[in-house]
Amino acid sequence: MTTTTSFANEAASSPTTPIVHLDEVGKSYGNVHALRGVSLAVRQGEITCVLGDNGAGKSTLIKIIAGLHEHTDGVLSVNGEVRRFGSPRESLDSGIATVYQDLALAPLMSVWRNFFLGNELTKRFGTLDATKMKRITGEELTKMGISIPNLEQPVGMLSGGQRQCIAIARAIFFGAKVLILDEPTAALGVKQSGVVLKYIVKARDAGLGVVFITHNPHHAYLVGNHFIVLKLGRVALDTHRAEITLEQLTNEMAGGSELEALSHELRGVDASAVVQPGSGTGKVDSPLESR
Ligand SMILES: Nc1ncnc2c1ncn2[C@@H]1O[C@H](COP(=O)(O)OP(=O)(O)OP(=O)(O)O)[C@@H](O)[C@H]1O
C-alpha cells in the first residue's frame, strides 16, 4: 500500500528559529503596493492572529506564504532557509497547509474521500484502499473530538463549522507544521465559531504554528498568542497577548484615533448618536487558552 503524503520537508531548525519568517516583505501589483515592510514570525505551538480591515493586505500575505504569489521585496524563510515559492505545491511540501475560507473540499464527495483528497491511499495494484481511508478518517476525527457519525455523508451536507474542522484535522494528519487559516469563522454563527476556535487551539497544542487571519478581534483574542494588525498593507500593530487588552485590540481594529476624530466631528452633528470608541470591557481571560 502506498500513500502520497505532503509536507515532507524536515529541515533541521533550532527551537528558537521561527518555522516561517517574513522579513520586511512587500508585494506590488504594478503600481499598487498591497504590502510593504511586513515582518512576521510563525513559531511552533503559537497562534499568530493577523487582523485587518478590507484591503489591508491579509489575502496578499496568505498568498505569498501559500505560494500563490511571489513577494516583490524582502525575505521569506522557512526553518531558517530563504525561500521563494513558485507554486502552492512548494509551500505545501515545506509543511505549510493553507485552509481557505471557501475550502478545497468537494461538496458532493463523502467525508472520508475529502479527508484523503489528493493523498489517496491505494492497494498494491493501484485501486483505492477505501476501508483503510475510512478507518483512518474516523480515528483522526475522533482524536480531534469531531463527531460525524456517517463518514459516507457528502461534505456539502455538513455545517460550515464541521467542514472547517475536517480541513484542519486533515492538515494535521498530513503532517503540516504551519496551518494558515483564512477567516475560518467569518461565515459562522457564535456556536460554530466556538467549535472552530477550539480546533484551532487543538492544532496549536499539537505543536503546529498557526496563522489565524480574521476581521474579528474577539475571536482573535480568545485564542491568539500574538497579534498583528495590518492597515493599508503595513503593520500597524505587532504585539503579544500579555501586552494588550481586548479593548485595545478592538480599538486598534476599529480605527482607534481615526474613530475618535470621527466621533469628535459627529458630536457637532448629533450628540445622541455618538458612541465613544473603546468602550469595551478591557482584558478578558480566554476560556480556550491553555498556555
Ligand atoms: N491581483 C491584484 N491586482 C491588483 N491589486 C490587487 C490585487 N490583489 C489585491 N490587490 C490590492 O491590494 C490591496 C490589498 O488587498 P488584499 O486582498 O490583500 O486585502 P485583504 O486584507 O485580504 O482584504 P479583504 O478582507 O477585503 O479580502 C488592495 O488595495 C487590493 O485592491
Automatic annotation (TrEMBL):
PROSITE patterns attached here?
Answer: ABC_TRANSPORTER_1, ABC_TRANSPORTER_2
Q: Where is the ABC transporter domain?
A: 20-257
Q: Which GO terms describe its molecular function?
A: ATP binding; ATP hydrolysis activity
Instruction: Extract the InterPro entries matched here.
Output: AAA+_ATPase, ABC_carbohydrate_import_ATPase, ABC_transporter-like_ATP-bd, ABC_transporter-like_CS, P-loop_NTPase
Look up the domain of life of the source.
Bacteria
**Keywords recorded for this protein, A-Z:** ATP-binding, Nucleotide-binding
* Record protein name field: Sugar ABC transporter ATP-binding protein
Provide the species name.
Answer: Kribbella qitaiheensis
Q: Taxonomically, what lineage is the organism?
A: Bacteria, Bacillati, Actinomycetota, Actinomycetes, Propionibacteriales
